[in-house]
Design brief:
Blueprint: E1 2-3, H1 19-26, E2 33-40, H2 57-72, E3 76-82, E4 100-101, E5 113-114, E6 120-121, E7 127-128, H3 131-150, E8 155-160, H4 165-170, H5 185-203, E9 208-212, H6 227-240, E10 245-249, H7 269-274, E11 278-282, H8 287-295, E12 301-304, H9 306-310, H10 314-320, E13 324-325, E14 356-358, E15 364-366
Parallel strand pairs: 1-2, 1-12, 2-3, 3-8, 4-7, 8-9, 9-10, 10-11, 11-12, 13-15
Antiparallel strand pairs: 5-6, 14-15
Helix pairs in contact: 1-2, 3-5, 5-6
Bound molecules: flavin mononucleotide.
InterPro entries: Aldolase_TIM, OxRdtase_FMN_N, Oye-like
Pfam family, one: Oxidored_FMN
Family: Belongs to the NADH:flavin oxidoreductase/NADH oxidase family.
């Protein structure tokens, strides 16, 4: 079981909050892998309120005790490296300039942008990055990876999923470039591979994983016709770099946080087969689905997000077949350092006899 990367919008500006020490420690199991919330590689990488970074002294100083808390509890902790690209707004950008992307194409208005006061607005048209800027961002990924290791993290995960900058380069609908970063499959994969190479060169392949969402439509305008072919090319090229793991998002989770029944031809199996190393999958897993995926050899490790967020002792509950706390969406991204963050009860804090309801998977949930 792996703890999923989960943005919680609790940072103090761009500096991780102190309560994160408790939050991550509560979810640590001995020898278990935890991924941080997506963490920005430079000031331009932000697109949500109160998300942390890995590019200033103050951020590194705040991460160190969080990493120590996880290590003390016996956990393995990787930082997820993030640049949102066009999924931002001038309010989050240095000097209030427009956000950047592979091309000057906005995210469809049907998918709104959250402002710092949590009101919603349309995403603006981004400014197209120059080739020199792209090289600068590749370097920023490598520097952030270096900083992560400096702060004590055991490794990094490159966030190349969910419609953010790297995926914006991969997709035809968001990348209309006519230079070597756009057009053909190898060209659209170039930025991702350059980031993976630079990060690997900086901290070593044994400390690097990558997250891909082959069927993602979140912050995107549908799927590309050559999407599976592109992902297959990308996975094979990434395999040459001997990264520690590949982490894919299940098609049932393709629209973000909602589980939908995927078309039968959408499956992660081809990527699992093409990947020689450890294969992680996330998205809509319950205990029975996770057990099945492990038994079938469909995955090596199952990544849990929402259930683990709401159940700090999720592994223990699975072992005991115990009921689960319900997750509260209202506090996913609220700034409160306690409510919905560190106050989900452990099993021994729940009064016996509390009524439960049953999830479709058969899991009992505290109502
Ligand atoms: C509150 C919340 C925040 C999330 N933040 C991130 C993130 O920072 N990085 C990322 O790659 N995915 C993020 N995701 C997606 C999760 O990592 C995961 O893929 C998704 O929740 C599906 O898994 P689950 O069904 O076990 O929750 C987020 C999801 C939720 C619910």
């Amino acid at each position: 079981m792996v703890y999923a990367p989960l943005t919680r919008c609790r940072a103090l500006g761009t500096v991780p909050c102190k309560a994160a020490q408790t939050y991550y420690r509560q979810r640590t199991v001995k020898s278990g892998l935890l991924l941080t919330e997506a963490t920005c590689i430079n000031p331009q990488a932000h697109g949500y309120p109160n998300t942390p970074g890995l590019y200033t002294e103050a951020q590194l100083a705040a991460w160190k005790p969080i990493v120590n808390a996880v290590h003390k509890a016996g956990g393995i902790f990787f930082a997820q490296l993030w640049h949102v690209g066009r999924a931002s707004h001038s309010v989050y950008q240095p000097d209030n300039t427009p956000p950047v992307g592979p091309s000057a194409i906005a995210i469809p208005a049907s998918q709104p942008c959250m402002l710092p006061d949590t009101s919603m607005t349309a995403y603006p048209v981004p400014r197209e990055l120059t080739k020199e800027e792209i090289q600068g961002i590749v370097k920023d990924y490598a520097d952030a990876a270096h900083n992560a290791v400096e702060a004590g993290f055991d490794g990094v995960e490159i966030h190349s999923a969910n419609g953010y900058l790297i995926e914006q380069f991969l997709r035809q609908t968001s990348n209309h470039r006519s230079d070597e970063y756009g057009g053909s499959i190898p060209n659209r994969c170039r930025f991702c591979l350059e980031v993976a190479e630079a990060v690997t060169a900086k901290v070593g392949a044994a400390k690097v994983g990558i997250r891909l969402s082959p069927y993602n439509t979140f912050l995107q305008d549908g799927l590309d016709e050559d999407g599976v072919e592109l992902m297959m090319y990308l996975v094979k090229e990434l395999a040459k770099l001997k990264l520690l793991y590949l982490h894919c998002i299940e098609p049932r989770s393709s629209t973000g946080h909602v589980d939908v029944e995927p078309p039968p031809d959408q499956t992660l199996l081809p990527f699992r087969k093409a990947w020689p190393g450890a294969f992680l999958a996330a998205g809509g897993f319950t205990k029975p689905l996770g057990d099945e995926a492990i038994k079938d050899g469909a995955v090596d490790l199952v990544v849990f997000g929402r259930w683990w967020l709401a159940n700090p002792d999720l592994p223990e509950r699975f072992v005991e077949g115990a009921a689960l706390n319900k997750y509260d969406r209202k506090t996913f991204y609220s700034p409160d350092p306690v409510k919905g963050y560190t106050d989900y009860p452990f099993l021994d804090q729940i009064k016996p006899g509390t009524p439960t309801r049953t999830h479709y998977s058969g899991t009992k949930i505290y109502a």
